[in-house]
Amino acid sequence: MAFTVPSEEVRFRASRASGPGGQHVNRAATRVEARWNVRQSKSLTDEQRARLLHKLANRIDARGVLRVVADERRSQLRNREAALARLTALVTRALRRPKPRKKTRRPRAAEERRLAEKRRRSDTKRERRPPKADD
């Protein structure tokens, strides 16, 4: 289930990127920051909102804004697309429900092997002890 973040709810902000690039990087605002308010989003159900706020708690600020940055590309448009893709992937991964765990029992033979090994180990340790005074 791929969740699509509504583009009208995402706010973009451009700034100057860091790193190599010479004059271009010093002049052009190609770094893009995508911001999406999870708390105020109309596209989420209450269950989805609670799940996102819990799963992405370390990435969401106090106002409920999820922030993603992209500055790998040389153009603002490509960074904008990359930031939106990254935001969508992050949200989709956080909304995925984990498969429920099926309870299993350890096979009887495995349990017997475990207990036999414990007895062997116990015997080994008992043999290492110094003899008692009454022996």
Description:
This protein is α+β, with helices and mostly antiparallel strands. The chain has a domain of 89 residues: Double Stranded RNA Binding Domain. It has 4 helices and 3 strands. The protein has a 3-stranded antiparallel β-sheet with strand order 1-2-3. The longest helix has 21 residues. The model has no long low-confidence stretch (mean pLDDT 90).
What is shown here, in short?
The chain is built from four helices and three strands, in the order βαβαβαα.
How would a crystallographer describe the biggest sheet?
A: 3 strands, antiparallel
Beta-strand fraction estimate = 5-15%
What's the architecture of the domain at 7-95, going by CATH?
Answer: 2-Layer Sandwich
Question: What is the overall shape?
Answer: elongated
The rounded distance between the terminal residues' Cα atoms is 73 Å
Share in helix = 40-55%
Q: Please, how many helices?
A: 4
Lateral strand order in the biggest sheet: 1-2-3
CATH level 3 topology of the domain at 7-95: Double Stranded RNA Binding Domain
